[in-house]
Amino acid sequence: MIKAMSFCTKKKGITHEECIRHHSEVHGPLVKRAMGSRVKRYVGHYVKEALAQPTIKGAGAELPFDFIAEMWLAHGSWKDVAAFYKSPEGQRIVRDEKEFLTPETTFTVAIEDNVIVELASKGSAPVVKTMHLGRRKEGMTHEEAVRHHREVHGPLVAKVFGQRIKKYVAHYVTEAIAQPTMAPTTAGLPFDFVPEVWFDVDTWSHLKELHQSPEFAELGREEKEFIDPAKLVAVIFEDHDIV
């Protein structure tokens, strides 16, 4: 099984709300029907708010994209995925994408997951779900940045936040995938990792104050060891399960 994330931007002339509605009511069900057993899970992460830097708190920018489509695929390789997208069923998906997305600013990456804090249970307690797109600082390789996040930064975040974090999964980018062929490309990776962090509501409401504490100052200093802060993108999202 392979995993992918597509970062999708609406086409000109439609609103963010119209784009999300088209994905949840039209495109998502179309993908489900067309791909059938080829897709094991399919979730739409719908962006609600872009976050300001460096505190990662509060609106501060236009939405960098409108939603993230996360897919777990039964295909054995990206070659198999590319072959499907050349088929009549795959071409129906491609045609519908043009109805509500901008191809030039929509991109897909292959990912592998590192679960740092596992969600105990979904439950009913409200949470704030965030996604952070991180790019390594100049002078580091992709492999060095991913290793640093896996071995140093991820565990440090879990230690500093403790029970305040309800879920923490780092999605490490392994390949860039061309649109609309869904074949691997030699194009440079747009970013290196995508940490997904769920906070309890009380922690989120006091996050700015927490970032001013000594323990969080240490975390901020450590981030600068491997992340380019100018290229960090963060959003709040809500989930919509399709498959």
Short description:
The chain is of the alpha+beta class and 243 residues long.
Structure keywords:
alpha+beta; single chain; 7 helices; about 240 residues; Alpha-Beta Plaits; eight-stranded antiparallel β-barrel
Description:
- With 243 residues, this protein is α+β, with helices and mostly antiparallel strands.
- The chain has one domain: Alpha-Beta Plaits.
- The chain has seven helices and nine strands, in the order E-H-E-E-H-H-E-E-H-E-E-E-H-H-H-E.
- It has helices at 16-35, 78-86, 88-100, 142-161, 201-205, 207-210, 214-223, and strands spanning 2-8, 39-50, 67-73, 107-117, 127-133, 165-177, 184-185, 193-200, 233-241.
- Strands 1-3-2-9-5-8-6-4 form an eight-stranded antiparallel barrel.
- The chain is globular.
- The model has no long low-confidence stretch (mean pLDDT 89).
Protein topology:
Layout lengths: L1 E7 L7 H20 L3 E12 L16 E7 L4 H9 L1 H13 L6 E11 L9 E7 L8 H20 L3 E13 L6 E2 L7 E8 H5 L1 H4 L3 H10 L9 E9 L2
Antiparallel strand pairs: 1-3, 1-4, 2-3, 2-9, 4-6, 5-8, 5-9, 6-7, 6-8
